[in-house]
Automatic annotation (TrEMBL), chains A, B:
One of its GO terms (molecular function) is hydrolase activity, acting on acid halide bonds, in C-halide compounds. PANTHER family: HALOACID DEHALOGENASE, TYPE II (AFU_ORTHOLOGUE AFUA_2G07750)-RELATED, HYDROLASE, HALOACID DELAHOGENASE-RELATED. Transmembrane segments: none annotated. It comes from the Bacteria. Keywords: Hydrolase. InterPro entries: 2-HAD, HAD-like_sf, HAD-SF_hydro_IA, HAD_sf, S-2-haloacid_dehalogenase. This is Haloacid dehalogenase. It comes from Thioclava atlantica.
Length: 235, 235
């Protein structure tokens, strides 16, 4: 095994608390009191998959996730009964960058640092390069390279997202372990010939999470967190 | 200014000594005594620009630099009067990766580390992603991301190499300073709207170097090395 590629949102960083924190600041500034910031974070994230599906289906050319996030922000506000027009658009632009400022789970930096001593470590995320770069620089994530959907112009779980990333690393997919807290991501990676590591993140979606609470296939590794994965990889 | 992008071969790493060292090892193993390893390094490097010119001119689709280096290795041996067929092809494959194992100039790591505290730092090199990643991991180059020709499928000085890199960073070219020891690289970057920093590397081509000994335009910065550049950037 030569490389470990990591899903990022949910697997390495806690998007829900980070987004809710910045939503709360905006809502306080504008006196919005009838929408829970966590509900808004969930609504924003709920539009993530359908917005990428348009690109995956070829109904829309590839655009970076920052742009999808910005469109989804206004759509989610409207769906939650808050008129996006009450906010200056520069403030929505600034909130959109909250995805660049997410905090890692407590085990992430130690786990990645240990795995980096044995393998190439890089994100294989649907986030665009600048988003992942800003996130890493702020949080100190020790990636060897910033990879992901934008470099191969394909969103996971499109096979090209996995196969194109393997080509950029000049590796056979079997030399790569895909690390994710999401069974569907690992299923797609396995179909492409990658090895797979499931990391338990039972609070990614908050206290009521009812998805990805357990492995749904016999993944090559199942880990409680990234330090546990490092230990299993002998790192 | 938001980002500093660095030419790599010659500006950050000393390709000539690194290549000659590994050529010497191969030649010793096979009893080749009539070709100076430094002359072979120079001959190999001399085919670099013409091989990329085929891609830039559209006469050949984009291929990663590792492949051009591999072809150029055999061509350079032949030109120097050494039959490449005397070496097992696996040994030439291994030598080809010498470009992944180049040492940084003595000031490079300190200079990059200081500049990284103020700006995004990344290579904007014609090297492919895996080459630059291996180089950084071995030498400890503290890049925020691995960028370069392969991500935008255009070799410098094609304007797309500079403009595509700026797009990936979601920056206007004027927010980027291109750092290079080569006047032609900076001239192309300036045409694309980037700021420019010339770093003196008077021994890149050995004791007889007669190119790039001085700035040929009024570059925004002229620096003795990367620590001097860090100081000029207030880093």
């Amino acid at each position: 095994m030569q490389a470990a590629l990591f899903d990022t949102f949910g697997t390495v960083v806690d998007w829900r608390r980070g987004i809710a924190r910045e939503v709360a600041t905006l809502f306080e500034r504008h006196g919005v009191t009838d929408l829970d910031p966590f509900a808004m974070a969930d609504a924003w994230r709920a539009r993530y998959a359908p917005s990428m599906a348009e690109v995956r289906a070829g109904r829309r050319p590839f655009v970076p996730l920052d742009l999808l996030h910005r469109e989804n922000l206004e759509a989610a506000l409207s769906l939650c009964g808050v008129d996006p027009a009450i906010f200056p658009s520069e403030e929505l632009d600034a909130l959109n960058l909250a995805w660049h400022r997410l905090d890692p789970w407590p085990d992430a930096i130690e786990g990645l640092t240990r795995i980096k001593a044995r393998l190439i470590v890089a994100p294989l995320s649907n986030g665009n390069l600048r988003l992942l770069l800003d996130m890493a620089k702020r949080a100190g994530l020790p990636w060897d390279a910033i990879m992901g959907a934008e470099l191969v112009r394909a969103y996971k779980p499109d096979p090209e997202a996995y196969l194109g990333s393997a080509r950029l690393l000049d590796l056979d997919p079997s030399e790569i372990v895909m690390v994710a807290a999401h069974n569907d991501d690992l299923a797609a990676a396995r179909t492409c010939g990658m090895r797979t590591a499931f990391v338990l993140r039972p609070h990614e979606h908050g206290p009521g999470q009812n998805t990805d609470l357990a492995p749904e296939q016999d993944w090559d590794f199942v880990a409680a967190d990234l330090c546990d994965l490092a230990a299993q990889l002998g790192a």
